From TrEMBL, chain B:
This is C-type cytochrome biogenesis protein CcsB. Residues 128-339 form the Cytochrome c assembly protein domain. Keywords: Cytochrome c-type biogenesis, Membrane, Transmembrane, Transmembrane helix. It is a multi-pass membrane protein. The gene is ccsB. The keyword Transmembrane helix applies. InterPro entries: Cyt_c_assembly, Cyt_c_biogenesis_CcsA, Cyt_c_biogenesis_CcsA/CcmC. The chain crosses the membrane at residues 20-42, 96-114, 134-151, 158-178, 190-219, 253-272, 287-306, 313-335. It holds the Pfam family Cytochrom_C_asm. It is found in: Membrane. It comes from Salinactinospora qingdaonensis.
Length: 546, 342
């Protein structure tokens, strides 16, 4: 359950180097240090990153096909029971815990080492580039993907000054003289823009690293617990209150937030008629809670999609079910059992539910019942009693009574939803009972179906890394947008005074990404510049046609 | 229990209008496809001035090839322009019927949009709550993306290749996935359905167009390779649009869809955190959307890496598209998971 555990062994480059060395053909004969450097380069190459990305995707597939312990350990044990040959082998290969397996951790940690090794130097180089001057004007602008030449009557200084004015959004740098030692007066402007592309790229990858760290931290510091709470009952956030509790590796029982709540009321609404009869419309529960024993009592309307945030944890309403109430009296008329018993829905939409009633304190022979609950009992065409609606229109219970030893003292852990009948014998089964009905057993004791309560299945999660994870994800999207849509480009303008009082202007444009629109943009800039210069030079306008 | 609140608010008139529109739009799309197919098969292969790529060089010879020098005469003053590396050969078949097809597609698109809107109004909720509605909405987005490409990038030549999968999907939706307008289950009562599902649907529509362009690209680059070997190419294959055009278009739509897909996954995680109590739980749908994301990420990296561009990267993109389709159909019907609304 703690994928990060493996990280303590893998981030060093040694295991990485052996793996990539075999993958990348024959390595050169080098000193150990050279070897290590070569392995590091291989690991941080784009090709390795691509292969690791694919492995990450392929490795995730078995987790979606095979049942996973993290989702349902019951399904896993069923699968192993059904496949006695294959199951244990799959288990040995961690195929029931794919996403927390050492091999999957190896893939993503290698990927992230590769990514770090690729991104950090890029970040450094980018930082330098952002502080450096735009690259010097190349001597031959005509070799660039876009180049243009025109002459103007304006002076070279005016040309360069106007060029800078038109290069809005660019970082521009004017150099007065040519590096090649031109004889004529003149100079050039070098301009660059679109640094945000690389910034976004670095940011995106760093955000992914942060996301992985947040996920790891969550599995260390968070916990999750599930429980059923019957309407009217309370819950206090302690480990024994949970039916199932999944703590992170460094979560201590004392770390649980000391909140408590009571489920005052629960409502479920279903579509009452028509084609979609029985489809659930809404579930909601009214809670009163305290964030800690000293805090004031507050109330909350709990719904699916609207968890209760309390003291850093979230309380969720996941589902609901029925808890029929039973009262058992012994042969002397003493009440020995009187409570609501949660029944488990068989998974049908009409809530046919199974439950078990264990009555240990009734004398030498303990009593146990297997029960079926139908919220809306109706007779089907074949005469069977079925439930035809999920709401309690006609709540009905049928019971099978067992007598003997429930096995509660045997030391074996028991499920409250199962009756262990090895040391019991069936004594009778009942007619269908409606609320208020009592069933007399042969030994003089009796059981009364007193009514039905709702219960809700709930979950509490606490994950301190949720917000950091969300923040990292948001930054990743932002970086992604920058890196995909910002188009870096460079423009150079050179002005050279000719002998006849005119100035020759050369414009060069270079786009770092292949976007066809950029040449048009460069050309637009050239036209704007030449038009501007012509207007300025208009008073002394002569014929400039070539 | 509140029996009063349990009456689903379905407007039956609107619902039947919506159902009638399904037939109308399928017929319209089919007619458009037929006309596009005529253009693809009998159109003359013409040089396209795709998008605003080429520098306006005064004359009609757009898309100047390498080393071309053009002089642009202005009222006073002359600018000599030199453009290198422009893609010279951007050709696609053109036929008058193609323009008619485009108009028919616009009509079908409007019908499609009307269908989605009336269904939403009939059920009084966002019109994407089951597989049928997803498919119709995805088709709407795919056709919308195609129309955008047709108008903005003159990519009308994609019509045949986009409408074939769209019609297939609509056929599947109408025949096997159809379900009447109805209310949603409680887990879907959230404004996140508007955010998460819309983002996923739009991204899927764009990925669909990208995928169609990618498949056409592979066919077209085979034709190109044959031509380069000096072989004679005849028939429809000879009239396929130029591979450069298709590759660029496919890339462009993936560029658009990928961040949106990322956002859809994140929005889904936020919703899952609210609805199921964890933001990531390796549910099959989550796993496969993650796989899809990773494969498309690999595509973007591959396309930025020398030696991987061209058909290698395109194949990766198609693997991503296959994952997307698998995620959409197979995960719902094969695996049991929290996304089993099928």
């Amino acid at each position: 359950m703690t994928p990060i555990k493996q990280s303590q062994s893998t981030p060093s480059t040694e295991p990485a180097s052996t793996e990539t060395a075999t993958a990348a053909g024959s390595p050169p004969a080098l000193s150990p240090l050279g070897w290590l450097r070569w392995a590091w380069r291989t690991l941080t190459s784009m090709r390795t990153a691509l292969i690791l990305l694919f492995l990450l995707a392929v490795g995730a597939i078995p987790g979606s096909i095979l049942p996973q312990n993290s989702v349902s350990s019951g399904q896993v044990s069923d699968y192993i029971a059904e496949h006695p040959e294959l199951g244990p082998w799959l288990d040995r290969l961690y195929l029931f815990d794919v996403y927390s397996s050492p091999w999957y951790a190896a893939i993503y940690l290698l990927l992230f080492v590769s990514l770090t090794g690729c991104v950090l130097p890029r970040a450094k180089a980018h930082y330098r580039a952002m502080r450096a001057r735009p690259p010097k004007t190349p001597r031959h602008l005509s070799r660039l993907p876009y180049s243009a030449t025109f002459t103007t009557a304006a002076a070279p200084e005016t040309v360069l000054q106007r060029a800078r004015a038109h290069l809005k959004g660019y970082r521009a740098d004017t150099s007065p003289a040519e590096p090649g030692g031109q004889t004529a007066a003149g100079g050039s402007v070098a301009a660059e823009k679109g640094y945000l592309r690389e910034t976004g790229n670095v940011l995106f990858h760093l955000a992914l690293l942060a996301l992985l760290i947040a996920l790891g931290a969550g599995s260390f510091l968070g916990y999750r617990g599930n429980m059923l709470v019957v309407e009217g009952d309370g819950f206090a956030n302690t480990v024994p209150s949970y039916d199932a509790f999944y703590p992170g590796s460094s979560v201590d029982a004392a770390d649980l937030q000391p909140f408590s709540f009571t489920v005052d009321d629960f409502q479920a609404t279903f579509i009452e008629e028509g084609r979609l009869t029985g489809q659930a419309q809404s579930y909601s529960a009214d809670l009163t809670y305290r964030a800690s024993p000293e805090s004031p009592e507050r109330s909350h309307h709990l719904q699916v999609n609207h968890p209760l945030p309390v003291n850093g944890a979230q309380v969720y309403l996941l589902g609901h079910g029925y808890a029929p109430n039973f009262r058992v009296t012994d042969a002397e008329g003493q009440v020995v059992f009187d409570q609501a018993v949660p029944f488990l829905n068989r998974g049908e939409s009409n809530f046919t539910s199974d439950g078990v009633i264990k009555v240990p304190d009734i004398g030498p022979e303990q009593l146990g019942f297997r029960a079926v609950f139908l919220p809306s009992a109706a007779t089907a065409d074949n005469g069977d009693l079925v439930s035809d609606f999920p709401g309690p229109r006609n709540p009905t219970v049928t019971l099978e009574a067992y007598q003997g030893d429930l096995g509660l003292d045997s030391g074996q852990p028991q499920s409250v939803y199962q009756l262990y009948t090895q040391q019991m014998e069936q004594i009778d089964s009942s007619e269908s009972l409606q609320p208020g009905d009592t069933w007399e057993l042969p030994d003089g004791s009796s059981i009364t179906f007193t009514g039905v309560s709702d219960y809700i299945s709930m979950q509490v999660t606490s994950n301190p890394a949720r917000l950091p994870a969300l923040l990292s994800a948001a930054v990743a999207v932002l970086g992604l947008l920058c890196t995909l849509f910002v188009q870096p480009r460079r423009v150079w303008v050179r002005a050279r005074a000719g002998g006849d009082g005119t100035t020759t202007v050369e414009v060069g444009g270079l786009a770092k990404t292949d976007t066809p629109a950029t040449n048009a943009d460069f050309h637009e800039f050239t036209l704007r510049l030449s038009d501007d210069l012509r207007e300025r030079a208009a008073p002394e306008q002569g014929s400039e046609k070539e | 229990m509140q029996p009063l609140a349990a009456q689903p608010a379905i407007n039956q008139n609107l619902a039947s209008v919506s159902d009638g529109l399904i037939i109308a739009m399928i017929v319209c799309y089919a007619v458009a496809l037929f006309l596009f197919a005529i253009e693809a098969a009998y159109g003359r292969r013409e040089r396209l001035q795709a998008e605003r790529s080429a520098v306006p060089t005064g004359g009609a010879t757009a898309g100047a090839g390498e080393g071309d020098i053009a002089t642009l005469g202005r009222d006073s003053g002359a600018v000599k322009v030199k453009v290198r590396g422009e893609r010279g050969d951007a050709k696609a078949p053109r036929h008058v019927l193609g323009a008619v097809a485009l108009v028919v597609t616009v009509v079908a698109f409007v019908l499609n949009a009307a269908q989605v809107v009336t269904r939403g109004l009939a059920a009084d909720r966002w019109p994407w709550g089951n597989m049928f509605e997803f498919v119709v909405a995805i088709c709407l987005c795919a056709v919308g993306a195609f129309l955008f490409a047709a108008l903005r990038y003159k990519a009308r030549y994609l019509g045949t290749f986009v409408l074939v999968p769209v019609l297939l999907l609509l056929g599947i939706a109408a025949r096997w996935l159809y379900s009447e307008a109805g209310p949603l289950i409680p887990a879907l009562h959230s404004y996140w359905i508007a955010i998460h599902v819309s983002a996923a649907i739009i991204a899927t529509g764009a990925f669909l167009v990208a995928g169609s362009a990618a498949i056409t690209y592979l066919l077209s680059s085979r034709t190109e390779a044959k031509r380069a070997r000096g072989e004679q190419v005849t028939g429809i294959a000879a009239r396929l649009p130029s591979p450069e055009l298709l590759d660029r278009l496919s890339h462009r739509f993936i560029l658009f869809a990928f961040p949106l897909w990322t956002f859809a996954i994140i929005a889904g995680a936020v919703w899952a955190d609210e609805a199921w109590g964890r933001f990531w739980g390796w549910d099959p749908k989550e796993v496969w959307s993650f796989i899809t994301w990773v494969v498309y990420a690999a595509y973007l990296h591959a396309r930025a890496t020398a030696g991987w561009r061209g058909s290698k990267a395109t194949w990766i993109g198609l693997v991503g598209f296959a994952c997307l389709l698998f995620n959409f159909f197979a995960v719902n019907y094969i695996f049991s998971g929290l996304h089993s609304y099928a």
